[in-house]
């Protein structure tokens, strides 16, 4: 059968079972329900600078062969791969950097599959269409963020350039209890971890986890002020609307892990996580009052214990944060790929070659700050 390209203005224009059939596992961020919740809640739309332009490859019988979540972006916020300097350079040259094309999960700097394809032919057709589209549209370039790497060779062959980043992930190496993790650390760090956790306990704070059917509308009403507070404290508006959490709670409750920190009978902080069969993903946190060491306990130690309890092997607690290193989160290289209009592409390619060398050196150096015993 002959394959052809379709472009969608709404993710709901493709049936959920068709989209999800391209996924090889239960990775939550590429699930149809997650992308639908972003769009139907108004968190992702043209008015927010994220105009959906998803690409599909279908056969003559309309059977889905490949898919790519794609957006026409009018800014670079909510991406976590920073290209503001590229935009400034292009605009100084008298050119418009926006709109640009972005293949990513909005507001989610989380590694995972991006270009879903049943075969190389359908994948290559998507890339060819995207490359051709750059010369035919007003977009300054195309960007694919936080992919795992299955399509790296194809991207390189199509003229894209790689950018490296670094995050910090915690790995559960068969621990049965949190004390097993502590035993893997040097004595000074073990003492610091216990001291941090004790400081929270001595303030009379307890933690309560919710998932599945426990995620009622009232729970989300309780959580949203914590999420919003993190942005409002910085003078920013929250990226996600209250409706996003309500919709996701209805469509993907089994993937959600929500924890509240409780003091004197009331919730004072909350954190939102997603999970699949192997990993826990820390996404959003907030507090309305300040408590000593509460952030570390809620976002890090509680997540570690949850991984151990569920037998999950990896905890991705979010982008950036070198303070995670001394708490056992190991440096992990991430990647993105970029194809820009010339002559910007050539200039960026040279910059990224130097940046990759520096990032690889940083990745190795960062391991020296981990708390594990040398015999590990």
Q: Can you put this structure into words, describing what you see?
A:
By secondary structure, the chain is α+β, with helices and mostly antiparallel strands. The protein folds into 2 domains: 4-165 and 332-368, Gcn5-related N-acetyltransferase (GNAT) (Aminopeptidase, 3-Layer(aba) Sandwich), CATH 3.40.630.30; 173-312, Gcn5-related N-acetyltransferase (GNAT) (Aminopeptidase, 3-Layer(aba) Sandwich). It has helices at residues 16-20, 32-40, 84-92, 120-136, 152-157, 178-183, 187-201, 217-232, 242-251, 294-310, 344-366, and strands at residues 4-8, 50-52, 54-58, 64-68, 71-73, 100-103, 116-117, 141-145, 161-171, 205-210, 256-263, 266-275, 279-287, 314-316, 330-340. The strands form 2 sheets. Strands 2-5-6-8-15-9-14-13-12-11-10 form an 11-stranded mixed β-sheet. Strands 1-3-4-7 form a 4-stranded antiparallel β-sheet, covered by helices on one side. A hairpin with a 5-residue loop joins strand 3 (54-58) and strand 4. Helix 2 (32-40) runs antiparallel to helix 9 (242-251). It is globular.
**CATH evolutionary superfamily of the largest domain:** Gcn5-related N-acetyltransferase (GNAT)
User: Which stretches are low in confidence, meaning pLDDT under 50 for 5 or more residues running?
Assistant: none
CATH fold-level name of the largest domain? Aminopeptidase
Estimate nothing, just give the exact number of structural domains.
2
Question: What is the percentage of strand-forming residues?
Answer: 15-25%
Count of distinct strands: 15
Shape: globular
Number of helices: 11
Which CATH class of the largest domain? Answer: Alpha Beta
CATH architecture title of the largest domain? 3-Layer(aba) Sandwich
Report Rg.
22 Å
Structural class: alpha+beta
Give the SSE order as H and E letters.
EHHEEEEHEEHEHEHHEHHEEEHEEH
Main sheet makeup: 11 strands, mixed
Report helical residue fraction: 25-40%
């Amino acid at each position: 059968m002959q394959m052809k390209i379709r472009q969608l203005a709404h993710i709901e224009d493709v049936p959920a079972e068709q989209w999800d059939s391209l996924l090889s596992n239960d990775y939550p961020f590429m699930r149809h329900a997650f992308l639908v919740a972003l769009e139907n809640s108004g968190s992702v739309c043209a008015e927010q600078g994220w105009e959906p332009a998803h690409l599909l490859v279908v056969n003559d019988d309309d059977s889905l062969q490949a898919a790519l979540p794609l957006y026409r972006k009018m800014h670079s916020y909510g991406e976590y791969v920073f290209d503001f300097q590229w935009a400034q350079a292009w605009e100084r040259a008298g050119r418009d950097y926006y709109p640009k094309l972005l293949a990513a999960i909005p507001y989610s700097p989380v590694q995972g599959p991006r270009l879903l394809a049943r075969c190389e032919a359908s994948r290559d057709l998507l890339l060819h269409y995207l490359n051709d589209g750059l010369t035919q549209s007003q977009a300054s370039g195309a960007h694919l963020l936080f992919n795992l790497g299955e399509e790296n060779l194809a991207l390189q062959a199509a003229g894209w350039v790689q950018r490296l980043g670094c995050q910090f992930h915690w790995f559960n190496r068969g621990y049965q209890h949190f004390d097993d993790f502590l035993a893997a650390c040097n004595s000074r760090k073990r003492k610091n971890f216990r001291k941090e956790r004790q400081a929270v306990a001595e303030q009379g704070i307890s933690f309560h986890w919710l998932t599945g059917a426990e995620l009622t509308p009232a729970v989300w009403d309780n959580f949203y002020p914590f999420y919003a507070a993190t942005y409002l404290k910085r003078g920013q508006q929250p990226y996600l609307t209250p409706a996003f959490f309500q919709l996701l709670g209805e469509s993907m409750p089994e993937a959600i892990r929500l924890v509240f920190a409780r003091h004197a009978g009331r919730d004072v902080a909350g954190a939102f996580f997603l999970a699949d069969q192997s990993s826990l993903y820390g996404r959003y946190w907030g507090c309305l009052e300040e408590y000593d060491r509460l952030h570390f306990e809620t976002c890090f130690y509680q997540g570690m214990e949850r991984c151990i309890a569920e037998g999950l092997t990896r905890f991705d607690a979010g982008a950036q944060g070198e303070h995670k290193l001394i708490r056992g989160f190991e440096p992990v290289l991430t990647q993105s790929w970029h194809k820009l209009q010339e002559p910007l592409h050539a200039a960026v390619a040279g910059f990224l070659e130097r940046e990759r060398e520096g990032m690889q050196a940083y990745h190795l150096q960062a391991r020296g700050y981990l708390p594990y015993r040398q015999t590990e």
